[in-house]
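Here is one such tokenized protein:
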Amino acid sequence: MLYRKECELLKHPRIYICGEQGVGKSFLSNWIASNRPCYKQVKIAQPLYDMVELIREDKYSGLNKVLEELGFDLTTSYFIRGEIGSDIIEDVKTSVKPRYALQKLGDIIRKYNENALIERALNISKDHPVIIDDVRLGIEGDALNKGGFVGVR
């Protein structure tokens, strides 16, 4: 049974969930999406997961498309690709969930544009109700609050 606070939350078209690892952020997001199909689940880190898959499959040329979707031109994409070192590649190739690689890729992206990942998520959320469950940084929460999202912790 939903409590009044949860019912009010589900009337809001833009929701983000933040919290420590393992507290049920994705569970709540999946529950909302399955009970309110109008909500689209968006991951701030989705481009990083896409990059990991391309690296895992040795499809490095595909990285340019992901970086272009984040707003980077070909020159900047070239420099970003140059920063992907053997430590990242090894983590991608040997780990089921390469947390180190995801973290390092995020650091590299933010070095060139601190807001690239969050701007992508905000652009996706313009046309329909959205729920984001992978808010990890303060700047992400601040940007989402300014973009009209309601946060759940």
About this structure: The beta strands are 14-18, 40-42, 130-135, 150-152. The mean pLDDT is 90. The CA atoms of residues 36 and 82 lie 42 Å apart. The first helix runs from residue 4 to 9.
